Each structure stands twice: as C-alpha cells, then as structure tokens.
Fold:
Amino acid sequence: MALRIYLVEDNEVTCKHLMDALSEEIDIEWVGVAETEGEAKDWLERNPDGWDVTILDLFLREGTGAGVLRHCRPRGAEQDVLVMTNHPVSYLLTHCRLLGANAVFNKATELGDLIAYCIGRAYSPLQTRPQRLMG
Structure:
C-alpha cells in the first residue's frame, strides 16, 4: 500500500526535487501540495484521515509551517508530521518538538535522512516511531 504524503512547501524546485527523490525510493501517493499555511490548514481540515505523513517547510510565502504543525496536533497516532527547515536553530527545533513534530530535518544537509525516515515509515506504518530532532 502506498504511503500517503501531503507536502507543504512554497519553493517549486525543492518541492519537485523532494517528490522525485521520494517517489524513486518508495510507493507514494501524493495526496496534495500546498504553498501557504491557509491552503494547508484548509486541506487538512477537509481530509483529517487522508494522509499518513505531512512534510512541511517552516517558512512559507504566506504563514508558517509552525501554524500548520499546530493545526496537526490532534492527528491520529499513525500520522507523522515531518518538518524541513533551512534555519536549524535550537529554539526552532524545540518549538517544533513542543508543537508535536515527529522529526525535524535541515533541508541543506539532511534530505537523505528525511527520505530514510519516510522509507522506514512506509515499511512500519503502525509501529511507534521515535521522535528525531536535528542536533
């Protein structure tokens, strides 16, 4: 069964690269893409059970990934929210953890780790997954 991923990213190049890289590695159903906090929250509101993993960028053209992350707090235990950022400062990592991120990845240096997380998630969807924060 395909891993259902919802992507929140406003950079078209990053979006395409991530989608291509993940699609090469595992069976993915891309259930949607949003470029703004408002679009993401609207889609998530209408599709509370329509995704397995949401990958989101912290800094969006309109709004923030933190707002989307906050909106995902009441998600099911089988749903993961992964955060990507180009600004891996400690207070942002802590903030993401407190808002419920399953993992946080540096876009510049840890894209491979994000892909590995998704591969692991695809093969163990019902197991409890440890939180992973950049360090």
Remarks:
- The mean pLDDT is 89.
